[in-house]
Every structure is written in C-alpha cells, then in structure tokens.
Design brief:
Blueprint (H helix, E strand, L loop, with lengths): L2 H12 L5 E6 L2 E6 L7 E5 L5 E4 L4 E4 L14 E2 L4 E7 L2 E6 L4 E6 L5 E3 L4 E7 L1
Antiparallel strand pairs: 1-2, 2-3, 4-11, 5-7, 5-10, 6-9, 7-8, 9-11
Length: 127
C-alpha cells in the first residue's frame, strides 16, 4: 500500500462526518473508524504496520516552541519518548511524544493549525 494514499485517506476522513471507511486494493486493506466522542481507531492490514500518534489535547499544533528548533520530517528516525511537536492549550504547552521507536512515515497536520483531542498527527513505522 502506498503511504501517500494512507495519508490522503486519513486527512480526508478528518474532514468528513463519516464514522467508518474501508479501502481495499489487492491483498491490502485499511479500515478507519471514528466513534462518537472516542479516539479514532485504525485497523491496517498491509505489508507495513503503522502506529498513529494522536493529539493529547485540543489546541494549536506547533512543530516547536518559540526559541526551540526541533522539526519532524517524513522519513526521519525517532526514538521512543522523543518530542515530535507541541500542542498550545491557552498558555500551556503540552508535548506530543513518540510512543515507539521508528520512522515518521506520514505527517497529517500542519504547523499552527487547530487540532482536536485524539486527532492523528503522525503515522510511525516501527523499527
């Protein structure tokens, strides 16, 4: 499955009121489910397993805080616990950390954009 296609489906899904989408091509299949008031769940069956990194709160996403320089790029290797960005919640800055070691495959959010709790920000491919 093409990683860019997965990113497009995920971004499109965030902008709709649909609760579930299933996409098949050959032996690859992906199901994305959004429950009422729940964190989105992903069921991916493909040659590569991807781990979603979700927003820990509602606010404005930033790749880095003022005066700091950490920026995530697709293909970049990350370690478990590494900060991938921050969520501005009023004057509070809440870090978005990698839950596993691996490679950033898809970035689903832009800098300075509003995000919701549980919204997928990144997809990681584990090592």
């Amino acid at each position: 499955m093409n990683i860019k296609t997965l990113g497009k489906i995920s971004r499109w899904m965030n902008g709709t009121d649909l609760q579930e989408v299933t996409w098949k091509k050959g032996k690859n299949k992906i199901s994305i489910k959004f429950g009422e008031g729940e964190t989105p769940s992903y069921n991916l069956t493909a040659s590569a397993k991807l781990i979603p990194v979700n927003s820990p709160g509602v606010g404005i996403f930033r790749f880095s805080a003022r005066g700091q320089t950490f920026s995530v790029k697709e293909g970049m290797e990350v370690k478990k616990g590494q900060t991938l960005g921050i969520i501005e919640i009023g004057k509070v800055l809440k870090p978005v950390n990698s839950e596993d070691s691996g490679f950033v495959k898809i970035i689903c959010v832009e800098d300075a954009k509003a995000v919701e709790y549980g919204q997928t920000l990144f997809f990681l491919e584990p090592k």
